[in-house]
Structures are given as C-alpha cells and as structure tokens.
Recover the amino acids of this structure.
C-alpha cells in the first residue's frame, strides 16, 4: 500500500466506494470498529475516554465508543459541540451511542487508561482555537496514551503542518491509505506507529484517482531494481565518473565514488585535479583515478561513451569552474547527479542550469538539502508551500528529478510523481552522508535505472543502511554496510 492520498483524494475514494454500492455509514462503522480493535490492543484493561468533534472523525469516535462498550469496557465520551448540530453519518453514530455525552470542559478528561482522539479530521486547514485548542492541550498534558483516529487532531492532512497545536499520539489508525501528513514532518512525529485499516474501499478507487504520491518503499520500485545477470559483466553495469575537489577537499568525492561502486556501478573513476591526484590515488583501490583539471579536459574524457554517468558537486568548490563542469556533463548528455557545490554554483543564475538540463537528453537528479534548495530555487518556488509541494514544483521547473533531503526526504519527478521517505534515522545527520547518497544515486543511474526510480531507491537504501549502522555512524560506514541491506532486499524481492 505505497499510494498516499491527500484529503481531497481520500474524499474521492470514499465517494467511489459509495458509488460502488457501499453505504457511507458502513464505512464509518468499519472505521470505528478498527479504532476499537486498536484501542483494545493498546489498552487491554482500564477506562477509555473518547473525545469527539462535529465531523465524521467524531462519528468514527462514537462508533468506536459503542463497540468498546459492547466489549465490556468502561467508556466515556466527550463532545465539543452541541449534539443537535451533528449531521449525516456523524449524527447517526452519536444516536447509536447509549451512554452519556460529557461537556467540553478540558478538566473533565480525568486520568483514563487511554484517550481516543476523534476531535478533528485530516481536512483541517486553519489554526486550532478556543475549546478545541484547550482540549488538545489537556489531552497532551494528561499523560495518558492517545490513539488518534485518522490523524492526530491539529495536523493538516495534506501538508503535515501543525495548525497552532496538535495532539501527540501514541498510535494512529488511518483508513485505506496513508496521507502525506503521516510521512511528512512535523505531522509524522505526532502520529506514533501508524496502522492502516481496511474499511471496504475497493482498490479500484486508485484506478479512478491515479495517485501521484507514494511512500518510498520497495513495493514502489521493486520491478526496476537492477539485479546483476549471471552472464553479465562489469561493462554492462555502467561506468560512473565522480568529480573531485582540490587537494584539501577530496574526501567527499571518494565517499560518493565508493557509494556508486557499492550501489552496483561496474566501474567508477574519480576525475581528480592533478594537484590532488596522489592523495586520491593513494586512498582508492577499486575506484580508478584520472587527471582532469579543466572543463575542456572533462568534456574530452566524456568523449568515451562508456562513461555513462557523472556525479558532480561534493567537495568540488563553488564558482565558475564548477558551472563549466556541470554544463559539460549535461552537454555530453550523460546521466548526472548534481549535489552540493554543483547546485550552489548556480544560485545566481538558476535558469541557466534549468535550461541546460532541459536541453540535455541525459537524466538528471538534483539532491539539495534545505539550504541548497533555498539558494537554487529562491524566488522560483514559493517557500511557504509544503515540502512535497516545493519538491514537485522544483522538479517541474528544473526538468530534473529533485531529491529534497531531510528526515522526510521527498523525491519528485517532473511528471508529478513523488515519493516520501519515512525510514531515515537521525544517525544520518553527519558530515559526508549526503555525498554517499549522491553516489548511491549515481551508481543506480550508471546501471540504466530511470532517474525517479534511481533517486527513490538511493534514498531508501540510504535510510536502511543508516538504521543498520546506528549510533556512532560516520559517512565512511555507509557504503561498506550496503551489502547487508542489498542481500536482505534481494532475498525479499525473490
């Protein structure tokens, strides 16, 4: 279930189910029952408080309360509106609740063993105020475990933004498919573990919706993952070239080069300034080294058609020389990964980079962190938009796959597809980690993997390796730990 639906798309999924013959209240009943089952697992004993709001989220809460009471649990319900104002399925669910309905006094929540948050739905698009804010703050202050219905109250389901304040849930139950806020920060950090419940919406709804957002997981790209053939050879797996900086800044290129080789490129060469040649050569074994000082020499090197992928930027330096190397790679129509200095060097003239990318027939992946993204796309992409929206806009404007890095890395294709990663551990926030990621992407591109898939695979592998290494991780660990992740992945794929 890698498809991710925004709130409008989830509304279409509900409507599709109803049009296909499922009563809307039946969907609410199944949702509430899924919440009740999750509540039983989270709090096997003790009293449960269900906090409901006016909409269908509150209706799910009423159904859950009734189901829990039928199972013999002690349940109290608080509603933050006049019951007479409830409409539709929510009113029907409230009518079926046979117990009392408490007032909206936040002090009334007491000390239950579990709170079910059915206060606000995922469609929240304005700041939380008044009684709702007070209740959210009281829930957070209670110290009780919290089970969120669909999404913790206070989170915008499409952007992941905290709308003033938000519930910190222990666990979240959502329905049919995840929403962007389950994966994007800060929303994800409020959810706890996420359970996706089947409430009877047919998968055929996805054919109607045609979602363009996905969770970055093997199911998204398994068919495109490059598996070496028994009768294959290194030349069939591509030859990546990684540009090195000067003698005092060679480490980043070596990290990227080793990442490309571990990711499966058949051969990797570091294009090194002559002044740094001995440093690079003495530190590399399986990776080759070639003396290259100027963009003209680099263009001549790329005259060899077997060199099919370039990784430029890590430790390369900011300025005209870097721009010239990038333009040479794009003019040679090689697959290219542009990172770090290769992006910052175009901060004053981003359109010249975008134009060169669009002229080139080689696939291009840009891998900025937030700082580099801001420099390259300042004034071009609205900084106030969500991370998902900004990555998508940047991909469309630049003509490249954009990997907007972070703990919720988004890989976006110019055609509108986007993959959100949720597997990056905090240990990856260390010097050189991004250089290895660029190398992983380059190694996959060298093997002929399409740019969007190569970017998504590289990001996922990066997160898995980071988790495998764990505390104390340094960038040098990442390439050498990759075989363990690949071994497990290939076993699962086959």
């Amino acid at each position: 279930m890698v498809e991710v639906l925004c709130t409008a798309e989830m509304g279409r999924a509900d409507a599709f189910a109803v049009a296909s013959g499922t009563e809307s209240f039946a969907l609410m009943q199944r949702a509430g029952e899924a919440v009740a089952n999750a509540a039983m697992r989270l709090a096997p004993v003790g009293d449960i408080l269900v906090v409901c709001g006016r909409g269908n989220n509150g209706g799910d809460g009423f159904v859950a309360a009734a189901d829990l009471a039928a199972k013999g649990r002690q349940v109290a319900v608080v509603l933050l509106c006049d019951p007479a104002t409830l409409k539709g399925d929510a009113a029907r669910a409230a009518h079926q609740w046979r117990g009392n309905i408490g007032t909206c006094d936040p002090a009334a929540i007491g000390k239950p063993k579990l709170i079910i948050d059915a206060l606000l739905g995922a469609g929240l698009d304005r700041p939380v105020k008044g009684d709702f804010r007070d209740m959210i703050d009281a829930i957070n202050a209670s110290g009780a475990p919290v089970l969120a219905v669909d999404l913790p109250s206070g989170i915008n389901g499409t952007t992941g933004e905290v709308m003033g304040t938000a519930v910190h849930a222990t666990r979240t139950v959502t329905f049919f498919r995840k929403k962007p806020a389950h994966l994007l920060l800060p929303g994800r950090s409020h959810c706890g573990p996420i359970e996706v419940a089947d409430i009877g919406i047919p998968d055929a709804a996805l054919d109607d919706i045609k979602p363009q957002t996905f969770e970055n997981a093997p199911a998204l790209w398994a068919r495109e993952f490059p598996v070496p053939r028994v009768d294959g050879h290194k030349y069939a797996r591509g030859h990546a070239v990684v540009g090195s900086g000067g003698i005092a800044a060679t480490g980043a290129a070596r990290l990227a080069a080793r990442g490309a080789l571990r990711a499966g490129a058949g051969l990797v060469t570091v294009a090194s300034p002559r002044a740094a040649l001995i440093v690079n050569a003495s530190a590399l074994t399986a990776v080759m080294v070639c003396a290259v000082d100027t963009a003209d020499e680099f263009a001549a090197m790329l005259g060899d058609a077997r060199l099919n992928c370039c990784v430029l930027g890590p430790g390369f330096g900011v300025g005209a020389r870097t721009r010239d190397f990038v333009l040479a790679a794009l003019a040679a129509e090689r697959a290219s990964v542009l990172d770090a200095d290769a992006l910052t060097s175009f901060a004053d003239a981003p359109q010249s980079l975008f134009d060169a990318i669009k002229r080139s027939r080689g696939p291009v992946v840009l891998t900025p962190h937030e700082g580099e993204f801001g420099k390259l796309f300042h004034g071009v992409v609205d900084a106030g938009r969500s991370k998902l929206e900004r990555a998508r806009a940047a991909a469309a404007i630049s003509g490249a796959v954009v990997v907007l890095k972070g703990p919720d890395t988004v890989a976006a294709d110019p055609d509108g597809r986007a993959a959100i990663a949720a597997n990056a551990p905090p240990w990856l926030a260390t010097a050189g980690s991004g250089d290895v990621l660029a190398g992983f992407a380059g190694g996959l591109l060298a093997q002929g993997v399409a740019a969007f898939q190569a970017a998504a695979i590289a990001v996922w592998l990066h997160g898995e390796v980071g988790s495998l290494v764990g505390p104390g991780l340094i960038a040098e660990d990442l390439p050498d730990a990759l075989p363990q992740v690949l071994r497990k992945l290939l076993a699962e794929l086959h």
User: Anything to note?
Assistant: The chain has a mean pLDDT of 96. Residues 244 and 272 are 5 Å apart (CA to CA).
